[in-house]
Amino acid sequence: MSLLALEGVRRCRREGDLERIVLREVNLQIDPGELAVVWGLRGCGRSTLLRIAAGIEAPDAGVVRFEGRDLRNHGEEMLGAGIGYCQKRLPSGGSEPALDLVMVSLLARGLAAPLARSRASESLERAGAEDCAMLPVSALERSESVRVTLARVLALDPRLLVIDDPIAGVDLGERDGILALLRSLADEGIAVLASSGDATALSGADRALTLSEGEMRGPPPSELAPVLELRRGAARRASA
Known about the structure:
Layout: E1 4-15, E2 18-30, E3 35-39, H1 46-53, E4 61-66, E5 69-70, H2 71-78, E6 83-86, H3 98-108, H4 113-126, H5 142-154, E7 160-164, H6 172-187, E8 191-196, E9 207-212, E10 215-216, H7 225-239
Parallel strand pairs: 3-8, 3-9, 6-7, 7-8
Antiparallel strand pairs: 1-2, 1-4, 4-5, 9-10
Helix pairs in contact: 3-4, 3-5, 4-5, 6-7
């Protein structure tokens, strides 16, 4: 049984008097330790797909199961307790240190402050963001923000990590490090489902998928192959 399974998922949006199909009969399975990346152009439904996969949004039709449990009925309890969803942006203008931000969800789950602080520090280090611990959230660069977002999720020990556009807005020199981090988390046994409109995000993925016109269409276009091969080599070097 797959860790995550989407079966016949369909999602529509109302746009005035018209109904637009965002996802059309999407099927997807993710196993523990697998890094799967969904590539597609802006507006193709990538973000919607990931929210549904994380149990944040319900499909109009079809079923989403995590460890065999239907997320339509168990989504709220599984989010943060098995499923880790990385928001695209941290709270803007925040003056609190990144460490405190990572601690919040742990404190909300009843951990004593010393243990929450210790676990938050470990998660920041695991995400390569230990130098950001005492920086205010508002001062973080985009790559640092991505790593702190990952640390918030990793602190909760997810078995599935869902992250939307992890390298969007990240400087070119920092992208390989982010991708290598996702690869290393998958190698540790965490299932990772990511999406991107940038072909370089497919580096190091076990499975590269394309979402187009609401349909999952397998590997990306063949014209991207040379780019992907170069980026895979860069990702391997970054993780070495």
